[in-house]
Amino acid sequence: AQSVTQLDSQVPVFEEAPVELRCNYSSSVSVYLFWYVQYPNQGLQLLLKYLSGSTLVESINGFEAEFNKSQTSFHLRKPSVHISDTAEYFCAVSDLEGMDSNYQLIWGAGTKLIIKP
Amino acid sequence: NAGVTQTPKFQVLKTGQSMTLQCAQDMNHNSMYWYRQDPGMGLRLIYYSASEGTTDKGEVPNGYNVSRLNKREFSLRLESAAPSQTSVYFCASRPDRRSGNTIYFGEGSWLTVV
Predict the structure, then answer these.
(1) What integer pLDDT is reported at residue B22 of this predicted model?
(2) How far is CA B46 from CA A19, A93, B42, B60, in A?
(3) Which of residues 40-79 of B touch A (CB under 8 A)?
(4) Among residues A82, A68, A79, A75, which one has the least CA distance to residue A113?
(5) Collapsed DSSP state (helix, strand, coil) of residue A91
(6) Are A41 and B94 in contact (CB < 8 Å)?
């Protein structure tokens, strides 16, 4: 069975400092990997995803994540955070196999990014 | 460009009352989902529907029922609300796998059962 572990429930960081949000997964098959972001009192929205190809994927607002198959990780990084990055970040995994009828995402518990001025 | 719309946004229920959360998507997606979100527990899948006319249980289906009324609409019903069902509920939809794997979420429904 697949599982996703986000190692930190909260990550406080000063504005303009770098940040890394950690995500590890377990799966016996090849996977797709996702990071979703949830701003306060809103729904989740896709930040970036890895499906295939280059193991480094980027978002439009400066985040990046690297798929590391040997370490089964998909950590999210940003070199310099802004107050507007305050949100909860969710890592998710799905397998490449199976049918549409049983396709699901397995979610991590989320990491709250707290930006200190 | 509505995307996924769910109503109501806020609701307070008394224990034992029933209610239905409504969800509609205008993206012609086949799959739809209902999740609940509780602090420290991430998202947990309640029910999902891979296509019109089909529904399947997720991780936490007890106390809920769903209806996939048509391709656009997927409702979640609480027949006899309990305080343990106090949560934020999210409806979501997704196109078929050949069209992409991104799940699109509604804005959420905050439900309090007293």
Answers:
(1) 97
(2) 33, 18, 13, 5
(3) 40-45, 48, 50-51, 54, 56, 58
(4) A82
(5) strand
(6) no
